[in-house]
Please model this.
Amino acid sequence: MPEWSTISLFVVAASILVIMPGPNTLYIITRSVQQGPAAGCVSSFGVMVGTLIHVTTAALGISALLLSSVLAFSIVKYLGAAYLVYLGIKTLLAQDNIPSGVEPVKEKSLSKIFYQGIVVNVLNPKTALFITAFLPQFVDVKLGSIAAQILSWGAVLVVIGAISDLTYVLIAGRLGKWLRGSFSFLRVQRYFAGSVYIGLGVATAFTGASKK
Model:
């Protein structure tokens, strides 16, 4: 079992990063505003399934990589840390453009919304890159199966994401008109999110170096 300090770091970091509205969250908010809480919940479930697909793919791929070379796994881990730092810098330097995901969408049946949520997430390369970079930072080769560890961390990430998304659904239901007209809060949150990405990437890189 991972140390409590590692678990705490993961929960805090994942919670902060998940709370920051990205394309998936904005899609869920838009559905909630346009079609109500039920559509928002269903779209959230679709996004969760998409995340599980990304996590499973990452678990199988990284596990196979470790079996072939421990050095290769270490390289992937450090590249992941570097990517998180890059993501943070990119977030800090991003312009205050409102993402296209907040544009009105046509009403669809709940089943179509569910499958669309899966597709929106699975076809988002940034989600795949983030999961591949983020989860391995908390893997300890001494604790056994790499795939099992990544799947476990991924399951925790999905639960945290579900709580965040469903909270946004409830908020969107009550503040739909305001959310439809103003996303200025994204401008403030991007600075916080960027700092977290950079801090996490640097911290995990140095932590990995100190364990060698």
Summary: Residues 4-210 form one domain. The CA atoms of residues 54 and 192 lie 25 Å apart.
